[in-house]
Amino acid sequence: MTKKRAVVAGGGIGGLACGLALAQTGWEVEVLEQAPELAEVGAGLQISPNGMAVLDRLGVTPLIEGALFEPEAIELRMGRTGRQIFRLPMKGTAEARWGNRFIQIHRADLHSALAKALRAQPSARVRTNARITGYVRERGGASVYLDRGDRVFGDILVGADGVRSQIRQQMCGGDRARFTGNVAWRAVVPVAALGENAPPPIGVIWAGRKKHAVTTRIKGGSHVNFVGIVEQDSWTEEGWSIPGNVEEALADFGDWQPCLRSVLEASTGLFRWALYGRPPLAKWCDGPVTLLGDAAHPMLPSMAQGAVMALEDAVVLADALSQDGDKTSALQSYEATRKPRVTKVQARSVANSHMFHRHSTLSQVATYAPMAVASRLSPALIHRQQDWIYGYKT
Ligand SMILES: Cc1cc2nc3c(=O)[nH]c(=O)nc-3n(C[C@H](O)[C@H](O)[C@H](O)COP(=O)(O)OP(=O)(O)OC[C@H]3O[C@@H](n4cnc5c(N)ncnc54)[C@H](O)[C@@H]3O)c2cc1C
């Protein structure tokens, strides 16, 4: 019997995971990536237990074992004073409560593990230098057009082509991106370059007036990943790889904890870019065409769930297509399953961003004091608040 054929637009974490999930459930898959080679930017990711459950199911966890870092805890601290607001124990607790670990990893390590697993599938193929310019629905499926003139047909087409998705643009019309008034910084620095002044080997969200930062450990714990988000409207360029300079980063974070200053001073590659928000889409499907990952539900990074949601999407989509019934209904069912959850995560990401940036002392006390009390008196309460997100089973 001829295999059903899926075309996946985009070879990011979402596209690769989707290709893998489909290949493992009997599809012939072609992933089309515009870049000359499969690669990810130099930055970290936190993968919560719900994401690890997907990686387990896809057989990817053993491939990242040597590269991941499992933090003891996630903490919220004040950026300027270092004062701890709450601590969420993770090592051991995450597995016991949510069935899986909470880990931190370099994006490239996760991405290359997914690529390796995908390439090991006899029915999967990855084509690079393949920029999609549009699609057309046709009898039995859909075809994409590549900028070099080829046309590639699939019984289904999955648009996993990121925040500025071409497939979404065609399906839903113009990009409704709005500048959030926030600018992000990122840097990765070897711990060895920081001496005594390394951020603690856990995940820390450093909160403050009109800005926050996050420090994590990646590459097995040998490197610190820094992300800083600052309310600022003088910079509006969206993208991941726009170089920034240390003086400007220090103007934002130089008077915060010395360990943050030392990361910025030691950094040899600092990048900054503007954060855009996009409202939830009215639809993700157009007959045999659907969207996945950031293309379907771009979100602010303040919940560290964008890549994890893309992983969840991948297996939910493969499961929907494994049911009896026609593929168009399967894609509709995938959208119906995923939309409420990702819409909630999108909204919480916006809320978190405000929560980390309280503008006045009064609002800081009103927000953080109850959290500090709850964390000390009833840590289980803080864990319980994460159940819906970390305990999700696909
Ligand atoms: C600062 C920051 C920190 C974050 N931290 C976390 C975190 O800790 N945990 C977490 O889960 N998420 C995190 N995220 C979110 C996460 O990075 C994204 O949600 C995730 O990478 C989305 O993956 P994707 O595959 O959907 O899209 P992308 O990674 O954008 O991949 C899209 C791919 O499609 C390709 N492409 C685009 N257009 C075309 C085209 N026309 N033709 C062919 N190919 C095309 C691109 O080259 C790219 O390879 C963070 C985001 C930011 C900004």
TrEMBL record:
Keywords: FAD, Flavoprotein, Monooxygenase, Oxidoreductase. InterPro entries: FAD-bd (IPR002938), FAD-dep_Monooxygenase_BioMet (IPR050493), FAD/NAD-bd_sf (IPR036188). It holds the Pfam family FAD_binding_3. GO terms for molecular function: FAD binding; monooxygenase activity. Its cofactor is FAD. This is Salicylate hydroxylase. Residues 6-348 form the FAD-binding domain. It comes from Litoreibacter janthinus. The keyword Magnesium does not apply.
